Amino acid sequence: MTTLFFIEHANGKINNQSLKAITSTKDFGGEVHGLVAGANIDEVVQEAAKIEGLSKLIHVDDEDFNNILAEKITFVIFDISSNYDFFAAAATTTGKNVMPRLAAKLDVSQISEIIGIESPDIFIRTMYAGNAIATVQSYDKKKVLTVRPTAFKAAEIKTDACTIEKLIPKNIPEISEYLNEELTKSDRPELTSAKIIISGGRGMQNGENFELLDKVAAKLGAAVGASRAAVDAGFVPNDYQVGQTGKVVAPELYIAVGISGAIQHLAGMKDSKVIVAINKDEEAPIFDVADYGLVADLFQVLPELEQAL
Amino acid sequence: MKILVPIKRVIDPYVSIRVKSDQTGVETDNVKMSMNPFCEIAVEEAIRLKESGKATEIIAISIGNQACQETIRTALAMGADKGIHVLTDEILEPLAIAKILAKIVEQESPGLVILGKQAIDGDNNQTGQMLAALTEMPQGTFASKIEIEGEKIKVTREIDGGLQALNLNMPAVITTDLRLNEPRYASLPNIMKAKKKPIDQKTPVDFGIDISPRIKILKVIEPPKRQAGVKVESVTELVDKLKNEAGVI
Asked: Cβ of A12 under 8 Å from any chain B Cβ?
């Protein structure tokens, strides 16, 4: 049994979601090889070679791979696929984009966003936005998996490095082309990787009032999210949305402000470690899942909270 | 240009789901069903391309039991031109669905296939990518904007940290994210008109492919329920609890 794990990186750093997801590979049995792609990424390659558990790192050394396109990276992985039994990546937008394409090329079913491993062919995953948990068995000889990073602890970076093997890809398909990226400029962490999230709902009344959340978030080093109601009302853009149709998050601390707690929102945040609800309606369903509830007017609470932190 | 829009019938997103007591799955009998929300966005986008003169025909495809006809009718009422219903009572995996769709792509030669990025029942997020692999088409997943420029399509994608733009050769596979558009409601006259639009009925056997399951669901359970915690009286008490009791700040 040998596993190939696809490691993501950006700005000279290994993606923390990859570091978490790679921990799952321990339970597949056998060796684990990492694959990292891009040219002029020495720092990343050196660091990746020291990830706990890896016995080999494959470096796809080509500048065409500094931005990952599914058409190209799956072509490269498919080429070396006969060496592997397991193929895994974090369930990031990149992992979700790439792995099903690889699975279909290998003619196997993918198991998406696993949160646990019972045995090398039995996995646990969520369905219905976390409202059902399924245990599934794969009959496929080769297994392709994406791993939900929030379910695993980040692997450590050791002091000694494993073998690094360079791979120079040839004849890659040219059917897609990377143009550019517009990354949200914010001092805040990104929603799906934040340790603390503070989200606003319809109770925020308008977009300007989200500044009150921003100020608290700045103190906590938190990301700012929103309920679908707040997005639908036009207070904030859709990439803020936490919920069944938005982002699924599981931070250490989730603070829901002026959010009633519709099923569709709860689906996106109920796996958070600690939930705080601030709402003036004490009947709001959000209080049923909150570890700490504060029945109060958010417009008084938020400035106070900012002061208290 | 022809556009194919595969759509899925799922439990309505506003219904609270119930896990069956025998742990075999989720109760779907006597539960309100709807078109998967991401599929609605796919239908809407195809209609907009037709309205702007970029597309000439929209074919809505659904694979599943007899009731999927209703879902196809909804797409027809929104503005799709015809439907293909692949009738099966089996719950097919994304790979099998993608294989059937690849055969339909071969027969219909569309310029674009637009699908929802994931269905809110299985949460697999695979079918579009798999279809792209099987047909060797490029893929623009999680699209929040698409612009056709000649033989190419520029796709703006929702990625973890923001947006990414790609240029894809056509034909291509696009999967939709929420911000791509706001789907329309079908008007009553259009619902009436949709009843006369054709739906081709097929079965998986017609495509001569292997759709046998690769995954067995051993059990489905409810997630552990969260217990409601305590109410605090003030911000000071809240901050104290978060620091000293929960240790999260």
From this structure: no
Distances in Å between the alpha carbon of A127 and those of A171, A228, B22?
38, 20, 17
Cis peptide before B171 (omega within 30 of 0): yes
Report the 10 Å Cβ neighbour count for A131.
20
Q: Which of residues 172-231 of B touch A (CB under 8 A)?
A: 178-179, 213-223, 226, 228-231
> Is the full-model pTM beyond 0.90?
yes
Residue of B114, B127, B124, B106 whose CA lies nearest to B155 = B114
Distance from CA of A163 to the nearest CA of B (A): 31
Q: Does B37 touch chain A (CB under 8 A)?
A: yes
Q: Is the pLDDT of residue B22 over 90?
A: yes
Across the interface, whether the CB atoms of A273 and B13 are under 8 A apart is answered no
Residues in chain B within 8 Å Cβ distance of A305: 235, 238-239
pLDDT at A227: 96
- The yes or no reply on domain B2-222 and CATH 3.30.750.24 is no
The tokens for A113 are 């966003």
A167-206 pLDDT per residue, tens = 999 999 999 999 999 887 777 888 888 999 999 999 999 9
Chain B contact for A253, CB < 8 A?
yes
Q: Which residue in A143, A83, A155, A142 sits closest to A117, CA to CA?
A: A143
Cα–Cα distance, B78 to B72 (Å, whole number): 10
The DSSP code sequence of B24-84 is: SSB--TT--EEE-HHHHHHHHHHHHHHHTTS-SEEEEEEEESTTHHHHHHHHHHHT--EEE
